[in-house]
Amino acid sequence: MGAVSLKIGDGTARFKRATMYSSAVNFLMLFSVITTNLFALYAFTYHTPTIHHYSNNNSYPKNISLISEKVSLILREIESSQKKLTQMEKQLLGYESIDLSRPNIAIELKQFLNHHLLPLGKDSRTGITEMVASVGHSCEKSVDLLSEFMNYKVNGLCPDDWSLGQKLILRGCEPLPRRRCFAKAIPKLGFQSFPISLWKNVSEKSFSWSGLGCKNLACLNIKKLNRDCAGCFDIVKGYETQKYVKGRSKNDFLIDDVLAMVVGGGGIRIGFDIGGGSGTFAARMAERNVTIVTATLNVDAPFNEFIASRGLFPLYLSLDHRFPFQDNVFDLVHAANGLDVGGRSEKLEFLMFDIDRVLRTGGLFWLDNFYCSSDDKKSALTRLIERFGYKKLKWVVGEKVNGAGKSEVYLSAVLQKPVRV
């Protein structure tokens, strides 16, 4: 995504909406190279004979000066081209200026984006002299919503607008700016101690239902919220009680079978679940003394609050965000259809490289019932996985019949990250 430079000497952050295509950068680079070479060819072929011809007439210093001027002109052209390229790169990335001087911009947004000098001056380790607020560059595209999000009473209660914040995240405005207000307090009713909490429902009053179509668990359990969550909030009598311990098809791998594939290396101790629904994968792993962090948003349901109510670790994060973990920290990464990023091959590559980054050598990548909408999609994913050189411990392509009676193709795999030198 790239770093965002917030240049706020006048109290404004610098962003600008992209207006040109990437081909323009290639054209400008080609033009700069051709221009530079023409100047060089002209200076060092045409004028060299002139210097030789007039050298006996005391004109040598004069012609040296002429060549110096030509070289200076070439250098200025190169510098100018570099500045233009930098400017165009900023435009193509989609930012240059958020105009905070426009009407109806929240004062808190201006306050948050202002630079803050370090109290002790320059930091000797990093060389920085001021702290710059972190905010996603795509926020410029939704600056009105961003200003609405930052319009609140300082030291008061935050507006009941978590759905507005999530809308901004889904539009690429991530990370969101921090706020100086108190979040709505929700009582903990019916909470159980761990591990009883893994399979016990709590009071529905413990969740925030604002901005959601459903207002209770019964409503959620009759809806197919996504391919990995159909009735997934029924953790007492529903299929969630059988997932990962009893399979319904050859694509459904069992947790104990997968854990048995690990030989040495400390086994599986800590893992990361991408798009983990209501947290059942993390719950089954917790029963086996494995800690799982589950990344999810609250799309159409209070996923994060529900996962937390089970005594598990939810991470409120979109898949466009770089995972906030150090390299090589997880023994296992589990992903199902949360891996689907809309069919853009480049976007999937970025995601896969980040998964590989946080997975330790010898760790497992478990791709669980990934829906292959077409042969092309399956082939593209297969080629991408093969580029990483993972060892295929288990690889199953199978069919399932959907609710409409149509057969669909799914891919499940357990892959082991190789040693790279």
TrEMBL record:
The chain crosses the membrane at residues 24-44. InterPro entries: Prob_Methyltransferase, Put_SAM_MeTrfase, SAM-dependent_MTases_sf. The keyword Hydrolase does not apply. One of its GO terms (biological process) is methylation. It is found in: Endomembrane system; Membrane. Keywords: Glycoprotein, Membrane, Methyltransferase, Signal-anchor, Transferase, Transmembrane, Transmembrane helix. Gene3D superfamilies: Vaccinia Virus protein VP39 (3.40.50.150). It holds the Pfam family Methyltransf_29. It is a single-pass membrane protein; Single-pass type II membrane protein. GO terms for molecular function: methyltransferase activity. GO terms for cellular component: endomembrane system; membrane. The keyword Transmembrane helix applies. Coiled coil: none annotated. Belongs to the methyltransferase superfamily. This is Methyltransferase type 11 domain-containing protein.
